[in-house]
# Entry
Amino acid sequence: MRKEMIYKDAAEGFSSDIELTKNGLISERKLNALRNELLDIDPMIVTGDFYTKKKIIEKSRIYEALMEMPKGVVHHLHLTAACDVFQLVKLTYKDYVYYSEHKNVFKVSKTPITEEGFIKTNTLRKHWGNANSFDEMLSKRILLGHDEIKC
# Structure
């Protein structure tokens, strides 16, 4: 029954209609063999404390193989999902962060930015009159305008 369920699940999976090339099949077999080596070392590798398991994974041959493989997609990270907004605002205290209120865009450069509308965030903060209210405005612009904000 278990095998039946596995086959049924595989047949209904999102990639069930993909046919691998000969090289793809060879790669799949090799990766499965490497995965099984790791499972032989620790059958519960996918459970438990991440940092404990990480050490085992990083020493495995499958990890080594995956690190050598070309990246098939462009990985990216949405900055506003990566850390707390207060950490992002804290970064604006660096003297090489520029901001355009009109464009709602940040630029970071140790070379002075002369593009119209971009002013150092520390300069803006001073002219704003109150650093806390400037930081609050920035945090709202980051959170509420995250679809438009660019870095």
